[in-house]
Amino acid sequence: MSERVQEQSAGQSPGTKAERRLAAQLAAKKAAEARRRRQSMLGAFVGVLAVAALIGGIVWLNKGDDTKSTAGSAASPTAPADSGTAPEAQLPADLDPALKTKPEVGAGQGELKELTVTTLIKGTGPKVQAGQAITTNYVGVLYKDGEQFDSSWDRGEPATFPIGVGQVIQGWDQGLVGVSVGSRVQLDIPANLAYGDTGRVSGPLRFVVDVLGAQ
């Protein structure tokens, strides 16, 4: 009788212990799989963040490069420089020697109502045609007080851009088409053909532009 009671008191233990062990193993396996899934998801998320950061950095760098080029289409601050001389390698040999030196540009006089193009040096090259890409050196100042706001000379290299197709301000499109390559011209531009009457650079403007090439 006592042996049967002992068996009954422990009678469920063999099967129950095995089941508990199996359940514990299954639970441990599930927990391990869950940890692996979480680690895998975390790794993928970190990878996505890294790729996004890399792409963002490339876009930022490209954007920074874009802001350094194409003068004349929008006024932009320039870093001060003391060169005063364009890189001779980019100037055709038959250009007037005066075009190798940065011009002094002063304020205008009176009220400017219409675009005025004044030839300071007459070039001997072909005339600029609308749709061509022209290479220029230039200085831009406020017409009223002569304060400089932009200059390719201060960046150390000429600027190249399409002309006569709406890629620059109207004063440039209208004033530079027909100018002979090798010329230095002064453009006095009213506000409505420049950047308007509001903003950092506003009102009438004066540019002295050297047309170095056209193609």
Polypeptide structure, described:
The protein has 215 residues and is an alpha+beta fold. The protein has two domains: 2-66; 88-214, Roll (Chitinase A, domain 3). It has four helices and six strands; from the N terminus they run ααβββαβαββ. It has helices spanning 2-9, 13-66, 152-155, 170-176, and strands at residues 116-121, 133-142, 148-151, 159-162, 184-189, 205-214. Mean pLDDT is 77; it is low at 1-14 and 50-90.
Query: Uncertain regions: pLDDT < 50 for 5+ in a row?
Result: 1-14, 50-90
Distance between the termini: 115 Å
Order of helices and strands: HHEEEHEHEE
Query: The CATH topology of the largest domain, please?
Result: Chitinase A, domain 3
Largest sheet: 6 strands, antiparallel
Specify the number of helices.
Answer: 4
Silhouette = elongated
**What is the CATH architecture assignment of the largest domain?**
Roll
What portion of the residues fall into strands of 2 or more residues? Answer: 15-25%
Q: How confident overall, as mean pLDDT?
A: 77
Number of extended strands: 6
Q: Structural class of the secondary elements?
A: alpha+beta
Nearest-angstrom radius of gyration? Answer: 37 Å
Helix content: 25-40%
Number of domains: 2
SSE map:
Layout (H helix, E strand, L loop, with lengths): L1 H8 L3 H54 L49 E6 L11 E10 L5 E4 H4 L3 E4 L7 H7 L7 E6 L15 E10 L1
Antiparallel strand pairs: 1-5, 2-3, 2-4, 2-6, 5-6
Short description:
The protein has 4 helices and 6 strands; from the N terminus they run ααβββαβαββ.
